[in-house]
Amino acid sequence: MDNIFLGLAADGTRQELRLDMANRHGLVAGATGTGKTVTLQTMAEQFSAAGVPVFLADVKGDLSGICLAGSSQFQHADKIEGRARELRIDPFAYHDNPAVFWDLYGEQGHPIRTTISEMGPLLLSRLMGLNETQEGVLAIAFKWADDNGLLLLDMDDLQKVLIACAQNAADLAMTYGNISRASVGTIQRQLLAFESQGADRFFGEPAFEVHDFLRSDENGKGMINVLAADRLMQSPKLYATFLLWLLSELFEALPEVGDPEKPRLVFFFDEAHLLFDDAPPALLDKIEQVVRLIRSKGVGVYFVTQNPIDIPERIAGQLGNRVQHALRAFTARDQKAIRAAAETFRINPALDVETAITELKVGEALVSTLDEDGAPGEVQRTLIVPPRSRLGPITTDERAIVQSISPFAGKYDTPVDRQSAEEVLAQKAHDAAQAAQVIEERGAEVQRAQPRATPSLWERAGKAAFGAAAASAGAMVARKITGRRSSASPAASAAAAAAGTLATALGGSVFGRFARGVVGNLLR
Q: Residue 328 burial by CB count (10 A; 0-12/13-18/19+): exposed, middle or buried?
């Protein structure tokens, strides 16, 4: 199996990233204009060629060209072909790569959505910059919604639940803790602010399925999933929180595979410093846990940033494969970064690393990767391999053509608004208003004698169960009359029907499997 060819060292030795060590994570660092993006592009297309799916964020809009073949007619083609000759790549042929475009706003690719429930209170608190007290109130709102079977799918659902919690703060205090109206108001203002930035498009259904990132094309090449993040970067907290959510989803969804021959997915996190800026300790703990443990799920995470000291030490210690482009020593912080970067490499007696970092040319880097035993190799000054795909952005028409042949066309493009917390609470408020009107006009006794205006969740489940049980029992009687054996079970049919109703009401395939198991055990 071919490894990822990064370039040639000064002594002519090939610098390669071993595929069986690619899930040990990595770092691509360097100042603006030193070639980080091109290095990312050439690594991504080689991973794809090896059958490894890739996710990368296109924060400047110039990685979209990875879907199309380069050409000797394009800008900088002479430099690309000259570098290929210098690295003795013969033959050097341009080629395209299978790519899918994604966009949280649904403008430059398929939309990616998740539900408020899946995001969870911790990441939402990070997104909104809440303090500890406000985070506690948000956690109470989530817990109360769960306890009452209220789906939190979009921002409107969360707003309604927060209003309900504030209105019933005194009743909820004994069970859940104090709920301050001021804290609820702060959370609501933050939600409105993010909604005005378009963040509300990220929450809703159909929710994204992370396994869609793990596909290959008909030729066995891994799909390159490109997130259009140029607009998203205007909301850096949303960008960082989204990518952390995505990593967490991958961690939760994928099974343990140990150390595979090649990764199941390689994840490039550009502008990685945004993940750690002003992050509270609890969030840093979560990031460290995900990065440390997702390796055994077969996922390699590569942080791309300008300054290596942007990565906290406990995270940086997990990054075994390193590509360091040039750094500039203009400030005291720059000088500190140079020393820190030099100290992280395995010493090469023939190379003054600290001096070399400031002298590297564009497209040149210091490279150190893990060997077959998992030990870091000696750092080498390396000329980086040029990409075979187009450098620079594609046109709007070219993007439209790529999207038209996407395997996910139509799957995520149309939002779905099913019954959730907003609708349930609105219906309850309507029922309560009607009941109050009946009491006022005809008295409380008349109101209590009336049937429930809206059947409860358990009533709906019970009706479904009774109907299924009756049908199953009828089938058993018919089979006995005809002499045929029957494996039908009224109890099992009732359990399945009830669970199906619960799953539809409470949402998602995950709950559906949970409900079928729980209700089935109850009725055995």
A: middle
Task: Express each pLDDT in 16-74 by its tens digit.
Answer: 999 999 999 999 999 988 999 999 999 999 999 999 999 999 998 889 999 999 999 88
* Residue that the structure tokens 């998740």 belong to: 114
Residue 495 · residue 516 · CB < 8 Å? yes
Note if the bond before 206 is cis, omega within 30 degrees: yes
Which residues, listed in sequence order, are joined to residue 57 by a DSSP beta bridge?
227
Q: Could you tell me the two tokens for 196?
A: 């005005």
Helix axes 236-253, 281-293, angle to 10 degrees: 40
Q: How confident is the model over 387-415, as pLDDT tens digits? A: 999 999 999 999 999 999 999 988 998 88
> What residue has token string 């791309």?
304
For 118-250, strand residue ranges (E) read: 224-228
Shortest CA distance to 474 belongs to which of 460, 493, 455, 456?
Answer: 493
DSSP per residue over 360-417, as a string? Answer: PPTTEEEEE-B-TTSPBPBPEEEEEPPPSB-SSPPPHHHHHHHHHT-TTTTTSSS-B-
Beta pairing, strands 224-228 & 54-58: parallel
**At CB < 8 A and 24+ separation, what contacts does 450-457 make?**
454/427, 454/428, 457/149, 457/501, 457/502, 457/505, 457/506
Contact by Cβ (8 Å): 13, 7: no
Residue with tokens 């959730």: 420
- How many contiguous H segments (helices) and E segments (strands) does the chain have? 19, 11
**Cis-peptide, bond into residue 280, ω within 30° of zero:** no
Q: Are strands 26-29 and 14-17 parallel, antiparallel or unpaired?
A: unpaired
